[in-house]
Specification:
about 35% helix, alpha+beta
Length: about 70
């Protein structure tokens, strides 16, 4: 199996919604996911990468920079 990693795009929203439901039990529609994904992709502090196997998104990682009150 060969995997490719690339930055997420809005068209990935349906696959990300499905992954969230199946793997983590989060029922969040593709439409709602697209709204959140669009917002995250527009922020300088967020990066979202997807793992592709064949033609299918099989995983993702969302990294973000945020400030903590205790550090």
């Amino acid at each position: 199996m060969e995997y490719t990693i690339r930055e997420a795009i809005i068209a990935d929203a349906e696959a990300l919604s499905e992954l969230n439901a199946i793997e983590m039990g989060y029922e969040y529609s593709p439409e709602e996911t697209a709204i959140k994904l669009r917002a995250a992709l527009s922020r300088e502090t967020d990066r979202i990468y997807v793992a592709i196997c064949g033609e299918k998104v099989v995983g993702y990682i969302h990294a973000c920079d945020y400030d903590l009150l205790f550090l």
